[in-house]
Amino acid sequence: MKGKIADGESRERLIIWIRRRMQEFGITFDALDASIQEDLAHPPLYRDARGHDWNGVGPMPDWLTAAKHAGVDPDFFRIEEKAKEEPQGKRDVVYRQADLFEYTVAPGWCLDVATNTAVCEQLCQRCRASARRQLAKV
Asked: Which of 38, 97, 112, 123 has the highest Cβ tally under 10 A?
């Protein structure tokens, strides 16, 4: 649940409102449960920036069809599967002691901003030296 209702009275009013809308549209609890189970069985495969999603079942939705006709590859909207976490244990990590007084900023910081030295030339002398050392390693 994304948000929480602060007090009990607001919660009760929300429940009454939801039940009235369900009754108004003829939605039963069984139909709601079946819809939730269907969503869990078929998670979305595509999603756009506005939150529209599609699970690949049925005809392609308008938002994806429009993007396809505009020349955008539908795979651009494909949701990547979450990678399974590695089991806890030893990892190939190399720890190195940093000299906190050697640089005014973290070494290679300008490499995160830009991959060329043209932007790095605008940075301070110590950072440029750091960037050159980092570029020499690459």
From this structure: 123
Cα 47 to its chain centre, rounded Å, is 11
- Residue 5 makes CB contacts below 8 A (sequence gap 6+) with 11, 14
The pTM score is 0.42
56 versus 97: the higher-pLDDT residue is 56
- The per-residue pLDDT for 120 is 47
Strand extents, DSSP E, the chain: 46-47, 53-54
At 29, list the tokens: 């609890």
Q: Which domain holds residue 128?
A: 101-138
Both 51 and 27 in one domain: the answer is no
Pick the range with the lowest mean pLDDT from 16-25, 67-76, 126-135: 126-135
| 13 in any annotated domain | yes
